[in-house]
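Here's what a typical entry looks like (Hexosyltransferase):
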Amino acid sequence: MAKDPSAPWHGDRVSGDAVHLCFFLRFVVGAIIIICITLTFTSSTPTHHAPFIPPNNDYQIKGISISKWPEKHKILDPFPQAPMVLPEGSKNDTIRQPWLTAIISSAFDAERRMLIRTTWIHTFKYVPFDARFVVSNPGNPQWVEVLQAENRTFGDLIVLDHLPEDEYTANTIKTMDLFKYLINHGFHYEFVTKLDTDLFLNARRFWDAFLRPRLSSENKATVTRTGIGEMYYHDDLAFLHGPMYTYTWDIIEELVELQNHYHAVACEDVITPILLLKAQRIVNVINFLGSEKFDYYEPDSRGDGTPWARQGTHPNATAHALYGTDPIAIHNLKKKEEYLKIAGVFDKDGIKPTPLGRDSRRASLKMLWLDFWHALGGRTYLTPRDKRIPDYFYTQNSNGDWIVDGIWNMGKTKEGHQERIS
């Protein structure tokens, strides 16, 4: 009997149901496999270094171990005197701000320096900080002339002319040599902040909530031995995450003293915990929330061309879009367009109010999977960095303070989220 062509055909619906069932089964099987793998790895405790003895890690730069990085003996011509350098015999009586923001920059990246000058440095020009870009010696006469012209115009470069501008220097000793430079040239700040060039700083909120409450009426720090940043765990070490951290001046002096004694060579931000471990010194930590310092993550945005977060965002994750009034340090802004997008939602008073609006797109399958895995307690980028520090890194002293790895005093809570002043 011939099939009536007008009769309804359900093959397409059956086929679609089969596809959805197949996808669901794959999803469930994949989830079970990942859960089993995670439980296997988290059930075993890694070996921890001995107390106050740094781990013997051979850190890598661009895939090459530091110990195997080719030595360079290039003779560098002294860089012409910059505005930040005082003439011989002069007295350092210049009135300076209490806070230095030192932005580690490649000598060859003039475009990014200009972007930063015209965004947060300009926006927050009434906040009392000195902004300086830290560059090394380009070793090229033409680039020396470029930097000279740049410094004549802006006067905001610190030139470490004894260091070559290369990957090895930038990723190992450049930050520590900046600290040496400040000491050796007679500078003094109450707070020194190290920054990367792919970070946008809400200087207004950081000043109001973290620094001003810790200064006297004479602009002298009322705290000592203090670091402000995001505690980070990596390769059997804990330290303040490199894109942005701040130390009181006494810590800067101490790190220079310790480096002159121990001559540590490692990835730039790892040198600090290595020195503190060797010398058995403790630093008091004010730890950032994930809503204050984070990597900007475009897929977490509403999808309407703005950097505001979707409704289902996780504001304390290590990466997300902008949410609320907390954002201070927005990192991972490699693209100029993203940097400008972030800068556009700040004014002299800080971040602008979040506009009303709905998500313009559905969350991607990747985002839905991450939301699901996070809800199950799995570790993803959504997990705050302080929650990734192993429990065996913590001890408690006689005052009830939690100490991370013997060198970081987090205060009365493991998270170290000290009181903010709104």
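Residues 85-93 have pLDDT under 50 and may be disordered.

More examples are in the samples folder.
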